[in-house]
Amino acid sequence: MTPLPPRQALAAPGKWPVVGERSPRADDAPWSVHVEGLVEAPATFSLPDLRTLGEVDQTLDVHCVTRWSRLGVRFRGVPLAALLERCRPLPEARFVSFVARSDRAHSTSLPLADALDLGTLIAFEHEGQPLTVEHGGPVRTVVPGRYFYKSLKWLERIELRAEDRLGYWEGEAGYHNHADPWAEERYVLPEGSRVDVMRRVQARDLAGVHALGVRMDAMTLDGLTARGAILRDAWFRRASLTGADFRDANLSNARFEGADLRDADLRGADLEGASLRGADLRGADLRGSSLFGATFCAEPGDDAGDWPDARLDATTRLDAEPLARLNDHQRDYVLQSVRS
Ligand SMILES: Nc1nc2c(c(=O)[nH]1)N[C@H]1C(S)=C(S)[C@@H](COP(=O)(O)O)O[C@H]1N2
Ligand SMILES: [Mo]
What is the reported pLDDT for 14? Predict the structure, then answer.
């Protein structure tokens, strides 16, 4: 069986989803990559300069925090190590921050030792072709062994630092700064917010709440109001959620295994990567929801857990949009259930 980190699923064959920014900053200047901060020899490299540092092929597994993976993907580029050999980091340099040529100056960072040990690559090509713009062309980083948000598109600046500087997703969206997919380091809760969130859970009012990774397994939360809440990675396993209002909520990667979702309102909810196995969805409304990577039944050859298949019937409401994003196996199961 294919080795996948916990709760990752393969992207459809031949598909490479675009995540985050879709294009770099508009700028007529020729592309260059600056290396600065705690280095003996700061430098600016043109793309041809960079490529003379010695290109290698590297095959790695891509694991996006939104749950899709692509295994054995080949990139070609220059190892970060080769570049830093030229610029010679000072002994105080303990972190490396990669900054993009993008409108929000998107960035991400790694401990320098990790970036080197993991074999970070400054990549120009993907499967023998130049990187397309939406995937970070002409130059991006790829970091094996970390969720893909540590791999920066449109590399413009590499900064060596004594202190860490949280990247865009890590600082703004609560993405885990260590990002090891095997340890499932996806999201962190903002400091100090857990108690407040649990108080809101007790009151069954999570409308507009922004909290990541909240554990609500087996809780009785019928009639819960969670409209517009951001509850990525929440656990609702075996929770009782009849009539819950999840309209437009972000429930990506949420676990609803065995949950009672009868008559729940999930219109417009983001359920990407959510697990709904064993959930009771009779009378639930899923119209306009986003179901990329969501699961209702076991995948062939999947032995992860012994949940039964979700319960759907003719009273479960769905429209074309959510169905289009399911994989074939899940879509067949859903369609067959709602027709019977
Ligand atoms: N400049 C930039 N780099 C970025 C992002 C971004 O929004 N901007 N998103 C990150 C995330 S979350 C992922 S999963 C990957 C997605 O790369 P792809 O669009 O080529 O699949 O890029 C990462 N690097
Ligand atoms: Mo991502």
Answer: 85
Instruction: Report how far ligand 1's centroid is from the alpha carbon of 134 (Å).
Output: 9
Classified as helix, coil or strand, 284 is coil
Q: Contact, 155 vs 83, CB < 8 A?
A: no
CB of 136 closer than 6 A to ligand 1?
yes
Q: Distance between CA 76 and CA 121 in Å, rounded? A: 8
Which listed ligand is nearest to 23 at the C-alpha?
1
* Residue 81 CB neighbours (<10 A): 15
Q: What is the pLDDT of residues 35-74, one digit of tens each?
A: 999 999 999 999 999 999 999 999 999 999 988 999 999 9
pLDDT of residue 302: 65
Residue 7 has pLDDT above 60, yes or no: yes
DSSP 144-179: TTS-GGGS-SSEEEEEEESS----HHHHHS-B-SS-
User: How many angstroms is it from 149 CA to the middle of ligand 2?
Assistant: 5
Specify the residue with its C-alpha closest to ligand 1, atom 16. Answer: 19
- Residue scoring higher pLDDT (191 or 223): 223
Q: Which amino acid is at 190?
A: P
pLDDT surpassing 60 at residue 191: no
CA of 63 to the centre of ligand 2 (A): 8
* Residues sharing a CB contact under 8 Å with residue 62, sequence separation 6 or more, in sequence order: 69, 70, 71, 73, 142, 148, 151
pLDDT for residue 112: 97
Structure tokens at 30: 């020729």
Dihedrals phi, psi of 255, to nearest 5 degrees = -110, 115
DSSP 214-228: -B-TT-B-TT-B-TT
Taking CA atoms only, the protein residue closest to ligand 1 atom 24 is 152
Q: In the block, which residue shows the tokens 């992860």?
A: 304
